Amino acid sequence: MNTGFSRVVEGGSSPPGQARRVVLIGHGMAGHRFCEETRRRDPDGSRIALTVLSAEPRPAYNRILLPNVLAGVMSEDELSLEEIAGVEVRTATAAVVLDLDGRTVLTSAGDVIAYDDLVLATGAVPRIPEIPGADRSVVPLRTAGDARRLTALAQKARRTHGRIVVLGGGVLGLEAARALAARGTAVTVVHPGTHLMERQLDPAAGRVLAAAVRRTGVDVELGAGASAWEPGRGLWLTDGRLIRATGMLLSTGTAPEAGLARDAGLRLTECGAVAVDDTLTTSDPRVHAIGDCAGHPGAAAGLVQPGWEQAATLAGRLTGASPRDRYRGSTVVTRLKAAGIELTCLGDGLSEDSDCEILRFDDPARERYAKLVLAGDRVIGALMIGLPDAAAGITQLYDRDAPAPSDRLALLLGRALPPEAGGSGPGALPDHAIVCRCNMVTKAALRDAWYRGATCARELSAATRAATGCGTCGGDVAAFATWLAAVDPKEPAHS
Q: Candidates 3.40.190.10, 3.40.720.10, 3.90.550.10, 3.50.50.60; correct CATH number of 138-252?
């Protein structure tokens, strides 16, 4: 690393009348969205001069869809996010030292860059357990480079009748395992817990999920951890068994990437994230944080939606377009993006509070399970596997904090959904229904985009950002395009 100064930019504030100098550290999904939101509010750059430091050698891309690369249904290039005009992006350039007093950033290229405001969007890093014998065939899935290495390991496994072990039965581990299996790779998920996704699911739901995962061709080993990796042979489990494997995908959680902030003396939360308030400001009034590195009590880690909502709030504040905006937190909805498995978790689905109304439906033979938690008439949590109609309607109730229908069992089975709760099909949804949760795109927004000239699913996505996050609503956006073409087949007027 070059720590010499090759170029120095003087510190201090920008002169009156000049654009504020904002330096963004991190060009992941939250950082890229901040750039988008900033330029949307300040298209000519007259208020904000934005410089981005990206440690990766390529511009921003959609990490959520990396399992699709493993499955072979997307290329790396298809993950790329749109380049934003008027933003200086320095790839392969890491931030090395923050000088909060001088308001400068030292980069790995040896430059010192001055800022008026600094935005940290450094994301999270994989938690890598200490596994004796681990070599280059043991890989996390966090970057495009990781996906390339895992793809090569999977190809080798298929050629040699080998296997890939996935260590960790959380959301990412299961999505990656299903993606590998869809391409014909033998896969075993090893999970030390008693059931899969224990952070989101209760034991009964975990059992149903395990059955569904096994049905898709993925082996599941529960209650055992990794003892050692033996290159050329496979993974030794803590119970003494050997799973023969060509490679191993680590999906053992993440930690906020807050080293720069810690070294600079910024306050961190108990979990090691950069502490921020509702203005997304850190303990230094000129430094802000968004995304997985930011510690806000209303934001769940590992989800893209909070980071994107934070990016919009902070862009509004720094550009002056919405100086009073505050980030109050995001609702928690988790979906498993694995072909052949319909799973939705929202809110406090694990609650067993005796003051709440709790209903369960357990049908393991048909891989169906539902748990609904209500406080009064409001949905505060739910777990749903194999019940997509119920999941859609209950999620709408949860998003709107709307009262649940009195027939709880019919609601749980997706048969008692009034129009305001969603119903089935695009036509039954109210205008305020959220179609894309990642970007909070409503039915009304899709319809408005249609009348502005977006006449197919691809154009609707481009106009509204729907289906550009996790991608699970892609089919819904296509259904909206079909429905709109049927109810209004005339060519929309272009504005």
A: 3.50.50.60
